[in-house]
Write a structure and sequence with these properties.
By secondary structure, the protein is α+β, with helices and mostly antiparallel strands. The chain has 8 helices and 10 strands. The chain has helices at about 1-25, 60-70, 75, 85-90, 100-110, 120-130, 130-135, 140-150; strands at about 45-50, 50-55, 85, 115, 150, 155-160, 160-170, 175-185, 200-210, 215-220. Strands 5, 6, 7, 8, 9 and 10 form a 6-stranded antiparallel β-sheet that branches. It has a two-stranded antiparallel sheet with strand order 1-2. The chain has a two-stranded antiparallel sheet with strand order 3-4.
């Protein structure tokens, strides 16, 4: 009888040890999140923020710049500038024509008043990218500019002048994008010949980094 009791106690102890061991080596359970495939989210969607496209090449970035100019999206426009810009070298301040009062304010506020600061883009963006610029840039054929590196808009006529944008992309200049606003007048002389005086160009030059990102570099005035 005593042997039977000892045997029963032994079996109970063995079962308890085995059960404890199983609990020790039992792997914890994890909730595995099942991810459903979404063709919109899982592929490269061309739309970004509803207004701008994904940038794969410089022409995509140009399209986004054009949209920002058209929409007067100052926050987006700022992404094409690296502030401050050296005003004298960039030519950008030549479009603004500061009067004496504004020059005095600049000198009082900034150690170097000749630089073009971020706040100026907020204030003067519609002067820098005026109605003529907006109208013509929207007419640039981007497919042609991308493949042939050159595109011209039709000539527009207003207020006795004609104007157009001529866009060029240059590899040899370590990649640069030129947007040339070409102006001329429609005034005729006494003989009915067009007067050439008054023709001029406002050329916006952008650096193109890694064949992808466009940054404003300077404005050149000619004529």
């Amino acid at each position: 009888m005593k042997k039977i009791s000892l045997m029963i106690m032994f079996l109970i102890g063995l079962y308890a040890c085995k059960n404890k061991l199983n609990k020790t080596i039992e792997q914890p359970k994890h909730n595995v999140e099942k991810r459903s495939f979404d063709p919109v989210k899982d592929t490269l969607n061309t739309k970004v923020n509803n207004n701008y496209i994904e940038v794969k090449t410089w022409i995509d970035d140009f399209k986004n710049f054009r949209q920002a100019v058209y929409a007067k999206d100052k926050a987006k426009l700022k992404s094409y500038f690296r502030f401050p810009i050296v005003g004298d070298n960039s030519g950008i301040c030549s479009l603004l024509s500061f009067n004496d009062v504004e020059i005095a304010k600049r000198k009082a506020k900034y150690v170097n008043p000749d630089l073009f600061y971020e706040e100026y883009l907020d204030e003067f963006s519609q002067i820098i990218f005026n109605a003529d610029f907006v109208k013509t840039i929207m007419k640039i054929k981007t497919a042609q500019l991308f493949t042939k590196h050159h595109a011209e808009t039709p000539q527009f006529i207003a207020d006795g002048k004609h104007y157009q944008m001529i866009a060029d992309y240059y590899y040899e200049e370590q990649t640069a994008l030129y947007l040339n606003m070409n102006y001329g007048n429609n005034t005729l002389d006494e003989s009915g010949e067009k007067i050439s005086e008054g023709e001029y160009n406002v050329i916006y030059i952008f650096d193109v980094l890694d064949g992808k990102k466009n940054y404003f570099k300077k404005i050149e005035l000619a004529g």
